[in-house]
Amino acid sequence: MIPEIGHFALILALSVAVVQGVFPLWGSFNRKLAWTSMARPAAYAQFFFLVVSFGCLLYAFVTNDFSVLYVASNSNSQMPTIFRVSALWGAHEGSLLLWAMILGGWGAAVAFFSKGIPSVMLARVLSVMGFIGVGFMLFLLMTSNPFERLLRIPLEGRQLNPLLQDFGLAIHPPLLYMGYVGMSVAFSFAMAAMIGGKLDAAWARWARPWTNIAWVCLTFGIALGSWWAYYELGWGGWWFWDPVENASLMPWIVGTALIHSLAVTEKRASFKVWTILLAILAFSLSLLGTFLVRSGVLTSVHSFASDPARGLFILVFLLVVIGSSLVLFSFRAHKLRSTGTFSLVSRESGLLINNVILLVMAATVLLGTLYPLIIDALGSGKISVGPPYFNAIMVPLALVLFSVMGFGFYLRWKKDKLSRVLKKAAFPLVLSLVAAFALPLLLADELNIKTVLGVFASSWIALSSLMWVLSAGRSPFRLPLASWGSVIAHIGMAMTVAGITVVSLYDSEKDVRLEQGQSYELAGYKYTFTGIESIQGKNYKANRATMQVTKDGKPVTTVFPEKRDYGPGAMPMTEAGIDAGFTRDLFVALGEPLGGSAWSFRLYHKPFVRWIWLGGVLMGLGGLLAALDKRYRRVRRRSLKLETGKQPAKEQLKEQTNPELSGASA
Amino acid sequence: MKPRNKRIIFVLIALLGVGGASAMIGKAMKGNMNYLYPPEDVLTGKVPKGQVFRLGGLVKKGSLQRSKTSMEARFVVTDNRGNEITVVTNKILPDLFQEGKSQVSRGKMNDEGLFVAEEVLAKHDSEYMPKELKEVLAKEHSAPANKTTKMGDK
After folding, report:
1. Rounded mean pLDDT of A492-520?
2. pTM of the predicted protein model
3. Which of B3, B33, B136 is opposite residue A385, by nearest beta carbon?
4. Which of A51, A248, A587, B97 is the S-S candidate for B93 at Cβ 3.0 to 4.6 Å?
5. Are residues A245 and A367 in the same domain?
6. Phi, psi of A215 (to 5 degrees)
7. In this complex, is the C-beta atom of B139 within 8 Å of any C-beta atom belonging to chain A?
8. Å from B144 to nearest chain A CA?
9. Which numeric CATH code is attached to B36-141?
């Protein structure tokens, strides 16, 4: 009964989404208030029915209702409850339902938090989101209904892929989806602006916090995914340039460009057309990501469940979304004239360089991801494009990007002098150059051009942003949140760059054969294999090795790498033994028995690897702070006041007199 | 500066950027593509000498040998039609590596006709074989020289 309620709620949500798509939009042209004001309640109702539907499926999972095909094929009663919950989004149908529910949630959030947005605008935004919802729910109901029943009810369900039975993966997809779907809000705002043919600073101020939040979710999702791959895939890599990883990276890169371009649109009424294009692109890439992961066209460690018919549907959906938005764009772009002008040396130029580089990066990833597909479709062989390709292009591009980034903080809007900027940036520039040469010499006792460049890039970003906030002229604690957000996010970027540089250049790795009692020394640490035992987990059996690590004769830690067997039909799993630290990780993975008491092990010494993810966390926090800036809330209050004919708030005026600081979140 | 000149400069910078980037992409692409070949293509000399490529096929039953003292492992990759290549590796074999199942390894041929693998992958579960490998092997089945034993993997 419960699954049928879920199914029915999904159909209701679809009907509501149709209403949400059609009537508010229609009403916005006919000036029918009754129709436009349907948008908000419709968004709430759509979200409500989706939550009901999702809840029903969740109930089926938690209660082990194997009469539901999707539950039976992805969950069994032996699994711990938390993984029965996360099994819901472990495969195609459930993850799509999650997608749809999150979309509904974003819609409801926009409806709730956008009190200051004119009703016509809000109606159009929610209407576009309604149409996207219609597409996804049609997809669910037509090709991938999660509530399908089985006639012959199995006693026990199938084992969920053990890779997915992990806490990191329980929260990684929802976060990533929050980001993907969040880009639909920016997209909807862009579409609404084009439908209305008007794009002003107020519009950018409405769109910015939403874009920020979506970007934050995407940032956290990607960082979490990288961390999960590091400890759970078992082989110590933190980024594989796997197509599925690339699928999440592309919207992130374009989203980053969009955030910066929106800043220009808000502050300087410039880059308007560009912003719209980026919003379309970011969402299209999110859809493409879903398509790549779920259609099975790619050979990837991630593509578990796949079906060509579904791929076709998403492809058509993708074409409709991109096609319709570009058609609208071609009719309306000329109306969105940018009024702000700027000279060659100006913050606008800096951000233009930022945008161009980021877009080239996104194109590089896109090409590397799709190229094997294209070659295969042309029948010219089976190829894979490996990490060297991505590294060869992304690293130099990133270096240029980072070099410009530091100056960007000191550039003034509209028109600036090169000499003034250089003078302002001189201190951090010199300091980071010194650091770039001194740190490698002191710590690694060698001078390597790659290390110098990496250390320079990260200290330059960190120092220039720090100095900027300190030299801003007023107490750092009175700066707007957006400035703080910007500084923290950029320092996060610097940390990630530092982590990537050090771990890529100085990590040590070795596959070794060890008999019980033997030891091996790597990067100053001595690993001794002292024993191995069989243990019984909740739904697996495992071999667990004990590895003692010492340094200069003193014990450092003992790690317990495992090899787990989840029974017939499931993959064996490698659980690495990791000793995590701020400046280094020790990582031991258990290989196979090699006869006698010998086993193979993979040993790693990974300096500063945590910095990669810590930087990601800082970036996310920075984005969050920027989104919470008072400015955005004040806009709402102001426009409410303007409606009632009162004066704008005093702080608002004050802020306008200091554009350099309020442009901080750029 | 006149707005028009300014625009020209911006366009030039953009063109330079895009041009440089495409040149870099082209170069990087050329050097870093790994083709997937079945043993037959290697034996008939379709693979240029010294090139890094991926060797796809089934691990011959009973062919896995391990050194008693080091990490070295050897196994034979076959297409079940008599085309065989011996692979040598110093790396840990993946969890899913099994005799009779599919594998893809990356590396190159040495002078003695051994394939030295830097990486061995076995991406399948009980019922899944990588799509690209399935197609490469299926192609051989339709070839005229087909002696056909049933493919070892479902």
Report:
1. 93
2. 0.88
3. B33
4. B97
5. yes
6. -65, -40
7. no
8. 20
9. 2.40.50.140
